[in-house]
Amino acid sequence: MKVLKFGGTSVGSAARIKHVADLICRERRNVVVLSAMSGTTNSLVEIAEYLYKGNVPGAQEVLNTLERKYESVVDELMSTDDGRRKASSAIDRVFALLRSFLSETLSEAGEKEILAQGELMSTALMQCFLEERGMRSVLLPALDYMRTLENGEPDMQHISVRLKRMLDLEPEADLFITQGYICRNDHGGIDNLKRGGSDYTASIIGAVLDVDEIQIWTDIDGMHNNDPRFVDGTRPVERLHFEEAAELAYFGAKILHPSCVLPAKLHNIPVRLLNTMQPEAAGTVIYNFAPDGSLKAVAAKDNITAIKIKSGRMLLAYGFLHKVFETFEKHRTSIDMMATSEVGVSVSIDDDSRLAAIVDDLKHFGTVIVDRNMVIICVVGDLEWQSCHFQAKVLDALSGIPVRMISYGGSNYNISVLVRKQDKIKALKALSDKLF
Ligand code: ASP
Ligand code: MG
Q: What is the pTM of this model?
């Protein structure tokens, strides 16, 4: 058994839904997790925002536009009168429910219910379409099994028992369809797993059912070994360790959030990234692979600010770093890269909204120097310190480029350097030439 998750763009139109239907009908008894059609969750968020502000006409307008969109999707998707009637009545029920909120003061529970409608509609449409095609597909309502605990974590025991029972009741089913993102909270109220939560749903289901593979289908063919916008000849990375994928997530490889794949990682289930537009391509598999000593990818993150704090007082003193970190904590700013010497420390941040206040406070402890418009370039791979090839290769590739900071040793999976914005593309290309 496998779990196949399709994101909003993959089910973003009637044509796309039909295409996904082709893909999921190729094998039997898999669980298919769907996001809301692209743009829908944003519209639902907007409706809730208008209602919170008491702007009913605003909410109504977004709602009407959304409804027209779904009407035309139903028209294009379904080909029999009976199918069209079924799909329309599912969509009508949702919009009747959404309209009922127009005359109320919105509560948090109401907002959660509004946000849940996108996934309820995409799965209802898919189910109607598969039925029309004669598939024995069964809809598994996520609200009947997906539940979180008081601390917001998934209630794995409950999910496992419920979901397995639901599958056992359907021995003849060819296929199971379920909603990503939505769940019930510990009070039994409708809730969700936060934006982008469908990946989390897929990972949780994969873990409790101990599936062979979790497939995340998007419109990108896996994770590339460098940024294709700046470097020619990049290719998808075949295999990544979960830790390597987590390092890359920071660099805009937004297809997977590390916390979303945690259940898969802990249960040793491979996660494969696949492209709906190129279904035969191998994509990228993420797994707890044994170390293989290989360099996997280069990635960059823009708009980084470097801050250096130097102080003679740091020499042989303790507590200096504590004061520096406390300053960042006070200003709720997270530090990404860091390099220290005996008399100074450099850190990088990507959120500079509190920079002036941070610098002001840091001046109590030493001389502060700020460099803006910097870029973190990160090399990801199996970088055990005992294997002595990679540091030299990375620095050799960057020999013509001024490097502001170097960081390695925080993990065995990345080595990062900080360079100026104007050197970014040159650095990316040089690293690709040298490493791959
Ligand atoms: N529909 C939700 C969102 O847009 C969940 C998801 O797509 O993963 O955030
Ligand atoms: Mg998504």
A: 0.91
CA of 8 to the centre of ligand 2 (A): 6
Mention every residue, 6+ apart, whose C-beta is less than 8 A from residue 325: 335
Chain centroid to CA 423: 29
pLDDT bucket at 168, cuts 50 / 70 / 90: very high
Ligand 1 center from residue 205 Cα (angstroms): 16
Ligand 1 and 36: CB distance under 6 A: yes
pLDDT digits (tens, 9 = 90+) for 311-351: 877 777 788 899 999 999 999 999 999 999 988 999 999 99
Instruction: Grade residue 254 by pLDDT with cuts at 50, 70 and 90.
Output: low
- H helices of 101-251, in order, are 108-115, 117-132, 156-168, 198-209, 242-249
Q: How far is the CA of 8 from the centre of ligand 1 (A)?
A: 7
Kindly give the number of the ligand 1 atom that is closest to the alpha carbon of 196: 8
* Strand 175-179 relative to strand 137-140, pairing: parallel
Report the half-sphere exposure of 106 (CA within 13 A, side-chain side).
Answer: 25
